[in-house]
Amino acid sequence: MSILPIYLFGTEVLKKKAKPVETLDDSTVKLIFDMFETMHKANGIGLAANQVGDLRRVITIDISDVTEPNAEGEMEDSAHPTSPDLPRTLALINPEIVNEEGAWSMEEGCLSLPGVRGAVERAEKVRIRFRDSEFKKQELFMDGFLARVVLHEFDHLNGVLFVDRVNKAKRSMLLPKLRKIRKGELDPDYPVVTAAKV
Ligand SMILES: [Zn+2]
């Protein structure tokens, strides 16, 4: 396994639409392992292949160590818990949204946008069709924080970042930070590729 550098805001690959995986070959299996290792190394809870410079429709999630926060960053009580029977660690290949329901807002961050946070409204409940890490067809109903993380990563596969979904006033407040990231003027504690040196 290898730790891959994470592509930061401003790089072209984050704006591209990823392509479906046709077969689960060795290279895709390796990509999934590497994405898990990369995500854990960076203390992330979700990663899309675009973020490691790869345009395959692959997402890795691990929220097993997360105490679910609410919009204020405090402990979640009962507002939007993830159902206890849902997996906390999973890989999704070629995910598709079957349907979405409800809406709630929460502050999000992203490994491709170090130091940037903003509230995003997303569906409360979602049904996702995907292939699992053995390329078996799955359909899973998800809610709470898990649904949010999957929707955030799903956006990445379509070239959409969470800052594209925050309101205009907040986005303009984030601009100076975004400019810094684009210029490579920051130093997260994980390997990165910036727009300044792709
Ligand atoms: Zn992200």
Task: Name the ligand types.
Answer: zinc ion
**Integer count of domains:** 1
Largest sheet: 5 strands, antiparallel
Number of helices: 3
CATH topology: Peptide Deformylase
Mean pLDDT across all amino acids? 92
Please bin the fraction of helical residues. Answer: 10-25%
Proper CATH architecture:
Alpha-Beta Complex
Number of strands: 9
* Highest-level CATH class: Alpha Beta
**Cα distance, first to last residue?**
22 Å
Question: Order of strands across the widest beta sheet?
Answer: 2-3-4-7-8
Q: Which structural category fits the helices and strands? A: alpha+beta
- Share in β-strands: 15-25%
Name the helix and strand elements from N-terminus to C-terminus, one letter apiece.
EHEEEEEEEHHE
Outline the low-pLDDT stretches: 74-78
Coarse morphology: globular
Compute the CA-based radius of gyration: 16 Å
Give a description of the structure:
By secondary structure, this protein is an alpha+beta fold. It has a single domain, classed as Alpha-Beta Complex (Peptide Deformylase). 23% of the residues lie in helices and 25% in strands. The protein has three helices and nine strands. The chain has helices at residues 26-41, 144-157, 168-183, and strands at 6-7, 46-48, 58-62, 89-101, 104-108, 118-122, 125-131, 137-143, 192-193. The strands form three sheets. It has a five-stranded antiparallel beta sheet. A two-stranded parallel sheet has the order 1-9. It is globular and about 40 Å long. The model is unreliable at 74-78 (pLDDT under 50). Residues 110, 112, 152, 156 line the site of zinc ion.
